[in-house]
Amino acid sequence: MADQSPPQTRTPEKAVNDDVSESAPQEGLSRRRLLGTAGATGLVLGAAGGAVGYAARPAEATPLTSLGAEEVMFHGKHQPGILQGLQARGHLVAFDLAAGAGRKGAAALLRRWSQTARRLMAGEAMANDDTDVARDAGPSSLTITVGFGHSFFARTGLEKQRPVALDPLPPFSSDRLDKARSNGDLWVQIGADDALVAFHALRAIQKDAGGAAKVRWQMNGFNRSPGATAHPMTARNLMGQIDGTRNPKPTEPDFDRRIFVPSSGDPAWMANGSYAVVRRIRMLLDDWEQLTVKAQEQVIGRHKADGAPLTGGSETTAMDLEKTDAKGDLVVPLNAHARITRPDQNGGAAMLRRPWSFHDGIDTDGVPDAGLLFVCWQADPLRGFVPVQRKLDRGDALSRYIRHESSGLFAVPGGAAEGEYVGQGLLEG
Asked: Mind telling me the catalytic residues?
């Protein structure tokens, strides 16, 4: 997924960076005077003062202006935040509509969110009462994606427009779900290549909600910063494993059919949209890290160093599921995660995984609260996420090292056309 080129982006020809020079030295205090007359105490104080100024801004280096200048278009066939490459910082937030907000209140809220998303994604300030948090940053590949939960339709009197594909997910034996951090009327995914830009958007979305909706839950995620590796490569998760090797790619002939609702889809307002399954999956890192690298590779079915299947080759080499070792045992164990999740082992089930890692501190017992904010996209979750998760539930070797702690399913309509807002076809149809 990280090797996909973000579609519908543009980079300004010139990015401005006005303040890159060091501050002028204090009048009357030359370098020669400092070194020649200051005693030991003076040198220590001078060093401390320099350290304070140095830490307050980046070290002397060429600014990565191209990173901040990348802009993703708000208007388009699909909503942003689905096809773009992984972003460095993300926020997932769910809202519940206020009592009495109804369809009219929801429409006004979606209109505000869409206007704000368009402005912020273009690197502009909010129309009113901007906090200036991201004033100097540029668009930074900001994306804002909006979806509807199962409960949204009853609250707005639109039950007849609720898609069958939005029926609640079935229970799984590995679930340890916190209802307070699951589902919601509305869901917003925010991603950017700069943490301040992402936070600015989160605050803007929350302020726009006003009295129409209140936050139900909110989660923070991160990925490797774009450009941090010498060449594009699939991301790693907090277990150190390359994660996302077999993600479907837009170049595949059946990609749109598997990931997006067709333009003639039912209901009509979901045309070119997709369904997002969101799961907070805690990784039991202390247990995982006690395994040897070889044991970890047996759990996954791939080499940790480069993601290549245990049967040989490179990361993209097809896995030989029938290959055996000198003892006659399968090289890739029957319960290996990579074997179980293969589309050809699940009736062709496919989903576009676009996750975030999370770390929410250390528990009182010293265990890290860390893992994966799993987000996957598909045209129909009953043909994407559900069959794969059911099979994982029956014997995935990885299951003893992870715990599903929250869950949500959201209908994400297609992109808004110029002059329209997200979800207009539903709320005004």
From this structure: 243
Residue pointed to by tokens 């110029």: 418
- The b/e string for 82-113 (b: 16+ C-beta within 10 A; e otherwise) is bbbbbbbbbbbbbbbbbeebebebbbbbbbbb
Task: Quickly state the pLDDT bin for 388 (edges 50, 70, 90).
Answer: very high
Interhelix angle 102-121/195-209, nearest 10 degrees: 160
Query: Is residue 115 classed as helix, strand or coil in its secondary structure?
Result: helix
Of 189, 101, 77, 160, residue with least CA distance to 426: 160
Hey, what are 54's tokens?
């140095």
- CA atoms lying within 13 Å on the CB side of residue 207: 14
**Predicted pLDDT of residue 165:** 97
Query: How far apart (Å, rounded) are the C-alpha atoms in residues 353 and 245?
Result: 10
User: Measured in whole angstroms, how far is the alpha carbon of residue 144 from the centre of its chain?
Assistant: 11
Mean pLDDT, the chain, as a whole number?
87
In the predicted model, what is the mean pLDDT of residues 155-182?
A: 96
Tokens of 397: 């070797």
Confidence check: pLDDT of 69 > 70: yes
